[in-house]
Amino acid sequence: MKRKFQPETLMMSHGYRPEWSEGAVKCPIFQTSTFAFRTAEEGKAFFEVAYGLREQGAREKTGLIYSRINNPDMEILEERLKLWDGAEAAAVFESGMSAISTALFEFLQPGDLLLYSNPLYGGTSHFVHHVLTKFGINVLGFRPGATRAELVQLIEASGKKDRLGMIYIETPANPTNDLVDIAMCRSVADQFSTPERRALVTVDNTYMGPLWQHPLRHGADLVLYSATKYIGGHSDVIAGACLGSAERITRVKTLRTFLGNMIAPHTGWLLLRSLETLKLRMEKQTENAQIVARRLARHPKIAKVYYLGLLSPEDGEAYAIYQRQCSAPGAMVSFELKGGEREAFAFLNHLKLVKLAVSLGSTESLAQHPATMTHAGVDPTEKAAFGITDALVRLSVGVENAEDLWWDLEQALDKVPAWVDTTVEMV
Ligand SMILES: *Cc1c(COP(=O)(O)O)cnc(C)c1O
């Protein structure tokens, strides 16, 4: 009888056989730029498939040619990564931004409309506003919490409703954990699609994936990752991934070949190693985050905590989306101190264990100040509208001992000057 193993079981073996490499149990680093063909006929056949000159035979393996096109570390990583999301195919990149920019370039045409959720990751926001617009793509953002009717109205009012190319979302949003309903976006995209032209739904799943949210199951066409975050998980690599149907990922890989932004063999190998502990790490991180978030919510110097694990039925639609879409609350906790930048900085400057750094999803806990760091480039009025205040701190919770972590957060909070409401004092 054949057993279907779970992804965490397959991370140590899937897609690799020791006999390929002198019996090595672990997949080696294939640090080579080019691969020797056995015969000229074989080289010809490999190129025909790689360049799409003919269909690949049912039994035919894609031959190794040149490491910009393919490499065992890249391909085995893709085979393993796709298991978590139940995707047909995956393409891995040298950064999250290269995965995002390649997917957007491949699937958008001049004249198309791109509808996106706010707030977006800073790099993506810059790419959308300053690069895509240069290529004649119309871009339009919607606010956190927007309803289906609002999305439809925005598209109709844009004058481009017959050119909706893609709805691009980040959920939960960074740094406030606002949720976007993926299935709702699918239904809006369907409403503006025709049999000849499907409006795609693309989800940047960096914040929750690949464990706690599987966008393809909710109707997304493409899933994107900064693999620098949870997938890499040790703050020692920059990498990215794009997942979806075999047909779409073939298109993404073809553009990747010509942009030349594929993952390097050594980075691919590091990520293969990271994937073996992915579930263990993410489970411990979410367990720690739940402990920390609950205690922060009760602390007298804290005004508000944004954490999916604190949502309750009173939160209405957000809670309903969370229940449908996510299997755990994750390890990203944002909170507002009572006060402003002075109080937030005092807290950050007194942390002893938690590092003051951007990025997220790693084994070590990291804290940063979105208003002046990751979201420094966001327009001030939009910042206020999205809840990115001067008193907001974002925390990525790691795998440390939870009591040690709490000790650090609490001692730093103790050092924050007691906040006096100056607006009242001045009266
Ligand atoms: C970090 C990040 C990116 C960009 O990824 P890089 O690996 O830094 O290029 C994109 N989206 C989100 C949500 C991120 O956190």
If you had to describe this structure to a student in words, what would you say it looks like?
- The chain is α/β, with parallel strands linked by helices.
- The protein folds into two domains: 7-32 and 67-275, Aspartate Aminotransferase, domain 2 (3-Layer(aba) Sandwich); 278-414, Aspartate Aminotransferase, domain 1.
- It contains 15 helices and twelve strands.
- The strands form two sheets. The protein has a seven-stranded mixed β-sheet with strand order 1-7-6-5-4-2-3, with helices on both faces. It has a five-stranded mixed β-sheet with strand order 8-9-12-11-10, with helices on one face.
- Helix 3 (72-85) runs parallel beside helix 9 (265-276) and helix 12 packs across helix 14.
- The chain starts with 6 loop residues before the first helix and ends with a helix.
- Bound molecules: pyridoxal-5'-phosphate (PLP).
- Pyridoxal-5'-phosphate (PLP) is lined by residues 95-97, 121, 123-124, 170, 174, 204, 206-207, 226, 228-229, 238, 240.
Strand % is: 5-15%
Taking strands numbered 1, 2, ... along the chain, how are they ordered across the largest sheet? 1-7-6-5-4-2-3
Cα distance spanning the termini: 78 Å
Number of strands: 12
Enumerate the distinct ligands: pyridoxal-5'-phosphate
The secondary structure category is alpha/beta
The major beta sheet can be summarized as: 7 strands, mixed
Compute the number of helices.
Answer: 15
CATH class of the largest domain: Alpha Beta
CATH architecture of the largest domain: 3-Layer(aba) Sandwich
CATH topology of the largest domain: Aspartate Aminotransferase, domain 2
**What pattern of helices and strands is seen along the backbone?**
HHHEHEHEHEHEEEHHHEHEHEEHEHH
Global mean pLDDT: 95
Number of domains: 2
Overall form: globular
Helix content: 25-40%
Low-confidence stretches: none
